[in-house]
Design a protein that fits this description.
3 domains; 12 helices; mainly alpha; flat; about 85% helix
Length: about 400
Amino acid sequence: MKNGIILLAGVLLFIGGMNAQERSQSDIKRDFETRFVLLTKNLNSAENEATLTQLLKDVSAFEAEFKPHQEFLNKAVFPDGYDGLIDRLKKSKELAEKKIRASQLEKEIAALTGQVQSLKEENASLRSQLTKAQAELASLKKTIAIMQDEIQKRDEAVFALVDSLFVKYDTDQLSGTDMKKLSVLEKKNVVASIKRSVSDNILFLSSASFSPQQIPQLLNEQRRFESSWKGVGQKLSKAYVPSSLQAKEVSEINGLITNWHMLTDGVFWKGLNEIFADEKLPIAPFSNGDEMYANIIKFIDSEIQNTAQRNPTEKTVVFEAFAYKTWGSKLKPSWIPVMMRHGLFTEEEMKEIDARTKTWSAGMKPIEDSTLSYILIGALVVAILAGIYLGTRKRSA
């Protein structure tokens, strides 16, 4: 009897020890994932060198602290593990460094340019510094463009892989054994790749600046990726993710795509507002297609009403800035087709702006109505060609 009690106590102590170890490993995994998310967020939002220096120390301390648990975390943290998340932190760190350096260079260039222009005599030293800073900034922008291209290619490769898998396999007809094989062989090549692609796009949008020519394509790519995921997400998780993790994986990817969607919209509308601001057009700021349409119509109507109060030169400058330099040459060829494709603008709204612009033109002298017609027709042709090109790319992606 005594021996039985001793044996029972030993078993209970052993089970208690195992539970304590499990709780400890659970805490380690939770702390590791929570601090990774916080560090990534802080790196993406770092705005100066002092903040970045402290964050670099935090990253090194984070890596060292969890290094003893590397083997456990590689198994416990799906899909990237310790090694994958540390690599992503290093990539975040690299982008943050480039972003801050680019910002510093732009300030240096502005200051040096001002000094050079204000000097009556040439200053070789200042010119040398300016040239060096401009070259480094150009190199950084080239690197950012290359990274954007790589991300886009990987996005295309991810969904090419998805398409090929679902052409090859119909999960509704697969046996349980076949499903298990697919899960083991391919889940890391699909679900993890999708998650990583979306994360990289979010990081890229948070860490780089873009030209007006790049921004419409950023939105087009985001919407295409989001649409593809909506079409295959549930089926994909069913095929390649263990049933106990399916809801969690789908929820995480949905959340990442929602974040990417919001960031892309922010970049898109900011870029559109800046196009008008660059031409000094007094169009009120907007954050969606309805507001943009309403504000442009209000601007045109105001200009039509105030035509009599403006001198000929001022009228011509304002009209050409909108009709030729902005609406006709920039928005209609590249921005408007993308907006129409994704439901952010309508063909009726575009035609109404064209009609109002022609009415505005009719009251302008010496600007001829026929000249505007040629400009608008030419812009429409370019817009149609751009729409055909983007539509062809979408079908071939």
